Amino acid sequence: MTENQPLVFPPDFLWGSATAAYQIEGAAREDGRTPSIWDTFSRTPGKVHAGDTGDVACDHYHRWQEDIGLMAELGLRAYRFSVSWSRVQPTGRGPAVQRGLDFYRALADGLLERGITPAITLYHWDLPQDLEDAGGWPERETAERFAEYAHIVGEALGDRVSMWATLNEPFCSAFLGYGSGVHAPGRHESESVLKASHHLNLAHGLGVQALRSVLPRNAEVGVTLNPGVVRPHTDSEADRDAARRIDALHTRIFSDPMLHGSYPDDLRQDTARVSDWSFVRAGDEATIHQPLDYLGLNYYTPTIASAPTGDGPAARNDGHGISEHSPWVGSENVEFHLANNDLTDMGWAIDPTGLVELLQRFHREVPQLPLFVTENGAAFEDKMDASGAVHDPDRIAYLNGHLGAIHQAIEQGVDVRGYFLWSLLDNFEWAYGYSKRFGVVHVDFDTLQRTPKSSARWYAEVAGSGQLPA
Ligand code: PNW
Q1: Which residue spans traverse the membrane (predicted)?
Q2: Does 1 map to a domain?
Q3: 0.90 exceeded by pTM
C-alpha cells in the first residue's frame, strides 16, 4: 500500500538514545562512589562473562563531553541515562556526596546546551551494596531509602531535568536478581522474588511522591517497565493458561498496582504455595498507584509459553539467561519456545509485531497516558573493517522494523511520544559483559575509542528528517 512512501512521524516525536550508569560510566572507585550490587556481583568469579566488570566500562565518567558531542553529531534530541545511587549516596543512606551530584548536573547542563533533552532514570539496577547487606529489595526499608534518594536527586536536578523515571525494568531486578540469580545480587529465593517486586513497586510509589514534592509542576514523572509480550505456543487451553501465568509474573505484578492500584487475583492464587503475600500492608497498593505523566516501555522480543510438553529436557530458554533456578515463582513448570524468526546475537527472536501489540495493550489499558519506547535495539557481532568502519546492516534492519511498528501503532491511534534507542554506545551488557554489542557507536574496549557505526548515520538521518525512508 504505502510501501514506496516514507513513514512520517509526528513533528514533536522525541528521538533519543539510552544508556545506564553501571553499563557505561566506569570510575567505580572515584569521588566517593562505593560498590553497588553490580560491582560485587561482577567481581565474583563465574557470575559475568569473562570476568568482565564495570570498573572502566566506556569510561563515560571522564568522556561524557565527547559522548555529548557524539549525540549532537547524530542529531539526537533526547538522552536517557541513569544515576548511580552509590555515587550520590554511598551507603544508600544519609547525606549526599556533592561531587556525585555535580557530575550529573554538569552532564544535564552539557546536554541542554546542545539542545538535547535529559531524561533521568533513578534506578537502573545498581543498588548500593550496603542496602543489599541489610537485606536488599526483599526488605521494605529499601523502598523507604529509595524515596529519600529520589528526593535528593530531584532536589539537585529538578531545575534542569524535566523527564524523570523512578525505576528501569523492576522485573529484571526482582526476578533475575532474586529468582534465577543471573543478575546481581545473584540470589535465588522464591518468596524473595515476590517481596522484592512489592518493595520495588512501593519504591516507585514513594519515589513518585518524593519527586513531586521537589520538582517543578511541569516535570514529567513516570516509570520504565519491560512487560512481556507473552504468546501461547498453541491455542490449547493449557498453553493459554501458561501464557496467562507468565504475563502475570512478567508484567501485571508491576503494571496492575502501578496503573490500577491492586495486585491481580490470579497472580496471588498462582503463587499461593510460595507466599501468603502478608508483606503487602494496608494502604500499600494505594501508595503504589500514583498518577503518572507517561509510561516508558522497553521491548526487544516476544515470549512464547506453553504447558509442560513432556518432550525431553524442558530447556528453560525464556530469553532471560540460563540458570538452574527458575525465576517463574509458582509456575516453574511452564516451558518456553523460540519463535521461527531470525535471532539477534542475544538469541532473541526479531519480531516487531510484538511491539505493536505491546503499545496497543497499554493504550487500551491506560488510554490517557502518553507512552514512550524507552528502550529498543539489538546486539550483533559488529566487526570493524580494514578501513576502520563498522557496517551493521542487521541493526539498521532491526531498527527500521521496530520504528515501522511504532509508526503503525501511532497510525492506529496509540499516543507514542518518543523513542530511545538502546544503546548509544557498546557497553557492559550485564551477565554477558562486553561480549554483546548493542551500540550504534562502536567502542574499542582497549583504547575506549568511539566509532559511529553505519546504523548511527542511518539513525541520524531518521531523527533529523522525522521519517523512515521508503
Ligand atoms: C535491558 N532478560 O536489560 C536493560 O534495561 C538494559 O540495561 C540492557 O542492556 C538491555 O535491556 C539489553 O539487554 C535486559 O534477560 C537484560 O530478559 C536482560 C533481560 C531483559 C532486559
Answers
A1: none
A2: no
A3: yes
